[in-house]
Fold this sequence. Notes:
Elements: H1 17-26, H2 32-46, H3 57-62
Amino acid sequence: MSQNFIPISVPNLKGKELEYVTHAVETEWVSISGVNGFEKKTVAYVKSKGAVSCQNGTSGLHMRQDD
């Protein structure tokens, strides 16, 4: 049977993904400094007041800002 979808339970590392993940771990980009840099670049790109990164979309949906 042919699979015409991207499986969500199996890592898809067919391109440069493994190289990129390895680089992120080796350079400690996955630490808080990498996250802060990502958030700052996102703020500048979308011209917003702030940004918060999450580990997945569900966590993002659970976040909210009280006015």
